[in-house]
Amino acid sequence: MIAEDMLPLSFIEGAGFRSFMSTVRPECNKLSQRVMGLQLYDDVERTIKPQLIRDLKACLAKSKDGESAIHVTFDLWAGDDAHPVEDPIVVVQLHFVSESWQIRRPIVAFRHLSHKNLSTAVARELEGVLLSYGIFPRSIGYVLANQAKETLAGNSLFCDYKIMCSSSRGEPDGDEMVSFLSNQMPGTESPFSELQIGNSATCVAHTLQLVIKEALQNSRVVENVISQVHNVVAFFRSSAYWSEVLMKECNVSLCPSSSSCRWNSMMLSLRRMVQESTWSAIMTLLAQARIEANDTASVPPLVIGKREQVIDILGLLEPFEEALQVLQGNGVTFSFIIPSLIGLDKALESLVTNYTHFNKALRTGLHTHFQSMIQQKDMIIAAVLDPRIKLQPFPDAKQEVDNTGFLSPPPKHLARTIVEAAVESMGASASPPVEADKDQTSKEVNQQNVEEKSQDSVTMEVSSGSSDDNNSDGLSGNNLKRKSIFNFLQPAAKSMKTSELDVYLSEPLWESNSSVLFWKSATRFPLLQRITKNLLAVPATSGGFDRLCPMAACIVRAKRSRLPSHTTERLLLYKNSLKTKTGKKPSGVTKH
């Protein structure tokens, strides 16, 4: 309870809590702040952290030289250093596949920094956190560095925190949350400029939202309609009275509580709003509220846009919503980047809309921001080695020239070549037992070649000395092998050798939802299995609103409770460990 709500440890010494405990568990000894602090220390520092370090070491031991097996999400919560209200905070989350093939995403650090030399402090803190868990830079694959407040603000089209998190019903965190999130860093210089660990990753969700915003800047009509309907949602959110009237008349609420707010809450509200009966009722209530308004502050927004316009625009945004839904999940997401982007572009291409200019701007934006991304080697490998996807998103040949300016995935043969090269590279640096087998095989082949050469020499001597022998065609068997036109006569065993990739691609698509389950049991593909394991846990996004908003609430509550950063960190680790325990499946594999 304390970890969930970031309460002060002194909470258990309150009269209300003691009265409650005496009713529920009268035999329970009186707890104290000191006892709880010691218990939290023991649970985290002597049990949870050591176990996590063992899990990380086991993960590294199973990977090739421990390289690029662990990935990092690095959240920076910082405000304007010109008017510092609070210290910058960093939250570090690790992503890896455990020895038992579970995708693990533990939060491992919650630290306060100084505004002074922030870029240097950020880089030093990340390195220190990793070393404290026994992780060296070569073990880090991708690092997704993220300015958390700016990321939440960037999600405003799907869920505007200023509207959805504001307190209209006495919710304690609302106004504090809005105040905390609104204090953002000026966008002058990146605070991550000195990060040199791992490969820098781009948050796909943030980039997709950037595509939409740039398209809106070129489509003012669409932007105006969206602004109008957002203002309607904000009006009902801020007015408990009119929200209640709407609920009575239509049994519809446009305003979920801030505790149940989701990353796409605004889209859910707009879908409810455009239902024919609801739209009419809302327009009627807005007109009535305009008449009854006592001052300018309580006057409802004016809606000029038509219901059909809103439906049309929602139709253009829904493919983005679907892509974000997939890519912000907790399961395997990296392999879905290419199919999600290709599917998104195709969905926009097939839509019939009155806003063709906006549609074209969206598709052009996808090309501008993602064309180079979908050509990246690891991203292609991840898609091909997802048994539910394989080569499906990639076209058979290079697309026609008339598609220039829109998203163009690499062709199948190129995607296959990239994976083949990765397999070849992995095979060349295989484990010692495999190398020993190869050496033995090589010796046998060399011995066979020596014998064949010796036999060739004898045969040539015999044939040159006796032209009237049974070799009446004038060619010995070994000479026959040297003629290129007779290559098709070579033994079938040499030409029919199939690679792991050939066998993998020839199998039908995996129908289960869990690609992790497939690769856990895919011992018949040892090289592909090793390549895939390092990519399964790579996050496609920073986790988005549904991860960052609860974290912001934790920070606000911890600040209100005046919790030291080390206590907050231990509570987060404790909370995360409980989720891991309760989230385990009977099979030992997390469903993705």
UniProtKB/TrEMBL annotation:
Q: Where is this region: Disordered?
A: 426-477
- State the Pfam families in the record: Dimer_Tnp_hAT
Compartment list? Nucleus
Gene Ontology CC terms: nucleus
- Tell me where on the tree of life, at the top rank, the source sits: Eukaryota
For molecular function, the Gene Ontology terms on record are: protein dimerization activity; zinc ion binding
Q: Where is the composition biased (Low complexity)?
A: 463-477
Claim: Nucleus is one of the keywords in the record: yes
Q: List the InterPro entries hit by this protein, alphabetically.
A: HATC_C_dom, RNaseH-like_sf, ZnF_BED_domain_contain
- Asked if the record carries the keyword Nucleus, the reply is yes
SUPFAM superfamilies listed in its UniProt record? Ribonuclease H-like
Q: Which UniProt keywords apply?
A: Metal-binding, Nucleus, Zinc, Zinc-finger
Q: Which residues form the HAT C-terminal dimerisation domain?
A: 500-576
> What is this protein's record name?
HAT C-terminal dimerisation domain-containing protein
Question: What species was this sequence derived from?
Answer: Champsocephalus gunnari
